[in-house]
Structures are given as structure tokens and as C-alpha cells.
């Protein structure tokens, strides 16, 4: 695992998200009910930034909503919780140390895809 500092915790609204552009991928770093998540900043249905959508609970899951067509993505797994999206968005492990937020965007197929702290 290779965690990289992506932002300060105070840079992210609660609840809310922040777009972070890295070399290989753009991610949405999301705060919801005290937890921090990282999800690829791209709706799998319409290829628009998820970071521009609302962060809310949907059917008991912390989600981010695509502003264009309303699909929600579970922040823990990346799975869409409603149509029109049917494909998941990638999620990444997050670590918070004090005021710093770190994300590991290296994909390791031996680990389950999940993000939380």
C-alpha cells in the first residue's frame, strides 16, 4: 500500500466532497457522519464528476449522488444503489492522521475494494 496525502480534513465539508486530481486518477474525497471515503470521481453511467453531487444516506448506506441522472454510489463499495448506473465506481483506502487525509490509489487485486477510516 502506498498512501499519499491528498488534502487537509478541514478542506472537506461535512457532509460533502472534494475533487482531488492525482497523476493517474481523479478522486472524490468525501466526508459523511464523521467518516472519510475516497471514490473515483467519475460516474460509471455518464462520465461526469461525482464530487459535484450530494452526499447523503440512501437506503442505509453512505452515498454520493451523480448530479446528472441521480444514480447514487455506496461510498464503502462503489456499487450503484439505483439506476441508471449499473457499474461500480472504484473506491480506495483512506487514512486520516490528525488533520491530514491520505489515500492509497494503487489497486491491489488481493484485497477487497473498500474505503473507510
Query: Which percent band covers the strand fraction?
Result: 35-45%
Give the CATH H-level superfamily.
Answer: Rieske [2Fe-2S] iron-sulphur domain
Task: Supply the number of helical segments.
Answer: 0
Strand order in space, largest sheet = 2-3-4-8
Q: How confident overall, as mean pLDDT?
A: 91
Element-by-element helix/strand order: EEEEEEEEEE
Shape-level CATH architecture: 3-layer Sandwich
Shape assignment: globular
Helix content: under 10%
Q: Measured on Cα atoms, how large is the radius of gyration? A: 13 Å
Strand count, sense and barrel status of the largest sheet are: 4 strands, antiparallel
Cα separation of the termini = 15 Å
